[in-house]
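In the design runs reported in the main text, the only information available to the sequence generator was the tokenized backbone. The following block is the verbatim input for one such run; it is reproduced so that readers can re-run the procedure and compare outputs position by position.
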């Protein structure tokens, strides 16, 4: 982000809020956006999403004390939107009332389970509800998962902080385009300005500890569903969401996963049987057998479809397979797999109550509807697309 772009946009702003984390680093200046705004004397409040300012916190870990960030700017409010007392998961009316501008500088990864999407929506919704005339500026970034659309729109029945009502599993939009969608969805009247994606000098910076690379983003829309099972989704390893496994999966070494005749073969990904030891999370410090997925052609790989098939296959082959028990999200009674899958037909498929043909047709129909519905919100030449299932 060049100073002359943002600086000009902030010419009349006196009290600026910033929603960001470490992905708000600018390669041209070598500084974070919060540093630049503080230098310009514009910064009033920094809002921090899940995982902390530097992606230092694991999933669902609350950030209750932001004093550690004071060293970056002592005269700035550092506000965690993901803390133990904030059930609304957004800024308060008092915090917003003192701002005339809010900049959102976050790296989204293209899947609805990723909580930054909901954090942005809740903030914009709060501004709309309070009828505040705050200028919104989005420092847009590429969607590392590409323009592919996957899955079905989640309904209110399954909607939660990890599944925003109306979004498909993989939406294909940039954060800027999502905010256009959000503004139209809520019929808001706040001013929205988008600083377009800057490809020159763009560097993918891990937005959270378990999204280390773009390769992870290409798998997340499907592989995140393993969180709803008693298998490790790779947290606690160097390949989260690329590897899955459990101590009771030793049979995986007996199968020829890359044979075209295998029941869950996919030509766009290589499947490698592995053993690994997570250092935390599920099966911590225990040897797990499992699979490592290596995407060959990311632009044509339908991660959600393949992961649904993998989960169903592993479930059928493994006596100790279970759905993750108990609450997955505060204030929500549904199981993790229900909140993640977010579609009754897809859930029925996993429980042998629906056919793959039905699921495939349902996803293709829903993907086409989403692509058509958001076409007017696109601001870049590359259109959204469906990948062959």
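Verbatim output:
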């Amino acid at each position: 982000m060049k100073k002359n772009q943002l600086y000009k946009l902030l010419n009349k702003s006196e009290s600026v809020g910033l929603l960001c984390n470490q992905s708000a680093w600018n390669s041209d200046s070598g500084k974070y956006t919060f540093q630049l705004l503080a230098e310009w004397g514009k910064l009033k409040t920094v809002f921090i999403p899940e995982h902390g300012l530097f992606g230092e916190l694991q999933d669902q870990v609350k950030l209750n004390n932001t004093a550690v960030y004071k060293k970056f700017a002592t005269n700035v409010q550092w506000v965690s939107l993901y803390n133990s007392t904030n059930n609304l998961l957004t800024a308060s009316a008092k915090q917003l009332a003192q701002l005339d501008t809010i900049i959102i500088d976050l790296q989204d990864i293209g899947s609805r389970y990723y909580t930054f999407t909901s954090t942005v929506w809740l903030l914009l919704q709060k501004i709309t509800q309070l009828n505040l005339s705050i200028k919104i500026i989005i420092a847009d970034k590429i969607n590392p998962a590409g323009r592919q659309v996957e899955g079905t729109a989640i309904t209110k029945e399954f909607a939660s902080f990890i599944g925003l009502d109306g979004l498909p599993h993989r939406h294909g939009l940039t954060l800027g385009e999502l905010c256009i969608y959000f503004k139209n969805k809520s019929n808001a009247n706040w001013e929205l300005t988008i600083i377009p994606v800057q490809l020159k000098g763009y560097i993918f910076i891990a937005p959270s500890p378990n999204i280390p690379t773009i390769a992870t983003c290409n798998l997340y829309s499907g592989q995140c569903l393993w969180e709803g099972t008693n298998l490790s989704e790779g947290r606690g390893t160097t390949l989260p969401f690329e590897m899955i496994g459990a101590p009771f999966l030793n049979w995986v070494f007996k199968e020829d996963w890359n044979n075209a005749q295998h029941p869950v073969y996919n030509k766009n990904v290589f499947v490698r049987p592995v053993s690994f030891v997570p250092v935390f999370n599920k099966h911590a410090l225990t040897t797990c057998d499992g699979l490592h997925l290596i995407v060959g052609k990311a632009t044509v790989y339908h991660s959600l479809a393949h992961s649904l098939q993998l989960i169903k296959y592993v479930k059928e082959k493994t006596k100790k397979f279970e759905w993750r028990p108990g609450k997955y999200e505060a204030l929500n009674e549904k199981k993790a797999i229900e909140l993640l899958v977010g579609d009754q037909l897809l859930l029925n498929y996993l429980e042998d109550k629906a056919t793959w043909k039905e699921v495939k047709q349902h996803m293709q129909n829903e993907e086409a509807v989403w692509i058509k519905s958001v076409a007017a919100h696109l601001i870049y030449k590359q259109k959204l697309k469906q990948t062959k299932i």
